[in-house]
Amino acid sequence: MMLMRESIVMKIHYGTAIGAVFLTVIHILMRMTQDFHESLEYENVIANYEMIGYAIMLELLLILISVHGFNGLRIILLEMRQGPTYEKAITYGCIASMAVLIAYGSRTIIMTSMGMT
Amino acid sequence: MSNISQEISQEKSETVLSPSKSIKLRISRSNPEAGTEEKFDEFVIPVEKYTTVLDAILNVKSHLDHSVAVRYSCRQASCGSCGMKINGKPKLACFTKVSELDTDTITVEPMDNFPIVRDLAVNFTRMFNNHKKVMPYVVRDDSEITPGTGVKEILQTPEDVDKYIQFSSCIKCGLCNSACPTMAMDTSFVGPQALAQAYRYIADTRDKGKNNRLKIIDESHGIWRCHFAGSCSQVCPKGVDPAMGIQLLRSYLLGLRD
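The joint structure predicted for all components is written out below.
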C-alpha cells in the first residue's frame, strides 16, 4: 500500500526536521527577550499568542513537528511488524492522529490569538 | 656442493613446526524441522596455527560427530557458503583462523536473521530473492554480442570502473544481512546485500536500468529503513562497504546526484 513514494515521504521527513529545529531555535531565543521565568508568566505567554507573526510561527511549528513525529512513529511501527493490513492500519492511523493533533493544537493557537481565553 | 646440500637438509630437519594445541569447539545444534531446541555440543580438538574454524568443524565431522550440518565449498573465501557466527560475530569459517581468535574456546552458531535449516546451515532463499529483485545485471537494449549493431565493445574508463568495482566483490555470503539490526526486526527489509548490488549496477556506466532499480528499492521496506548502523560494512570479508553504497543510493533518490 503506497500513498506516495517513500523517497518523497522521506524528503518531507528531513525537511520538516530542519524546519522544526529552525523554528524551535527562534522559539527558544524569544525566551531571551526578557528574564526566562518572566517570559513564562501567563500574561506574557498570552501576549506571545496575540502577536500574529508569532502565532503563525507556532502553527507552523505544530505542523512540522506533527508531520515529522507521526511519520517517525509510522516508520518505527512498520519495522516492528509486517503485513498489508497492519501496514495500512498504521499508515492511516498515523495520518488520522496527526490530523487530530494539528486540529486540536490549531484550535488552541487560533482561540488564544483571538483573545478567546 | 655436497656439503651445501647437507647443510640445507639439516636446516630443514631442524625446522620447528608450530606446536599443536587443543581447543574446545562449541557447536550450536538445532533442527527446527524436527522441533528440537538449540543446544551446544562441545568437542576438544587439536589445532595448528594455520587451522581455520572450518577445518576445526570438519575435524569434528570426520572424527567425532558426522551429523554436524555445515555448508561449505571453496575453503578460500570465494564461494560465500560457510558464513556463521564465530564467537558472536558473523564471519566466514574458512577465512577465520583459530589462532587469530586468541581463545581456547570457540563457539560457532548459525547466522542471525536467516531461518535455520539445521545446525550451522541456514536458508538463503530470502536473501537470493531480494538479490534477484534488484536486477543484478547490466540492463541495456543493445549488447556487445548483438550482430549487425556495429558495437564491438562498451568501453569504460578506469574512473568509471572505480565507481562500482568494490561492490562487485560481493560473494553473497550473507554476513552483512546477518549483522544488520534492521533485518532482525523487519522481515520485509530488502537488506544491505541487495542494496549494495543495486548500487553496483546503478553506478555502472554501461547500465540503463537505474530508474527501474530505484523504483524497486524506493518502497516502505526498501532503502529508507536502513539506520546506518554500519555493521554490514564491518563484517564484510571482501571489503565491500554496503553502508556507503546505501548512502550513495539515497543521494540518487534525494536528487543530489544524477
